[in-house]
Design brief:
Blueprint lengths: L2 E6 L7 H11 L22 H10 L3 E6 L9 H13 L1 H4 L3
Parallel strand pairs: 1-2
Length: 97
């Protein structure tokens, strides 16, 4: 039986902290840059993260899932994360959110 592996999205698959820091430099008055429309769907992937996720999907002893929570400041967060997953990892991972 395969082992279930949960992989966090923020700062594991995507450069979340880097993006928040950059946005705060651009708009220091904005308390929650992650509340901005499109923030999550435009996050840059971490180097190697996508390749590792695809390898895990092929591994017969691993059943990978993405563990992520929606931002309380952004009601569109879950939708944007789902879009990101589909664009970068494909539909097979959408059902593993």
């Amino acid at each position: 039986m395969p082992k279930i592996v949960y992989v966090d999205m923020d700062d594991v698959l995507v450069n979340y902290t880097e993006a928040v820091t950059f946005k705060k430099l651009q708009k220091p008055e904005q308390a929650y840059p992650q509340a901005e429309l499109g923030f999550f769907s435009c996050l840059a992937p971490k180097i190697g993260g996508i390749a590792v996720m695809k390898k895990m999907l092929e591994h017969p002893e691993i059943e990978p899932y993405i563990a992520t929570a929606p931002s309380l400041q952004n009601p569109l967060c879950y939708m944007e994360k789902r879009i990101w997953v589909e664009q970068h990892l494909g539909m097979e991972y959408v059902s593993r959110l």
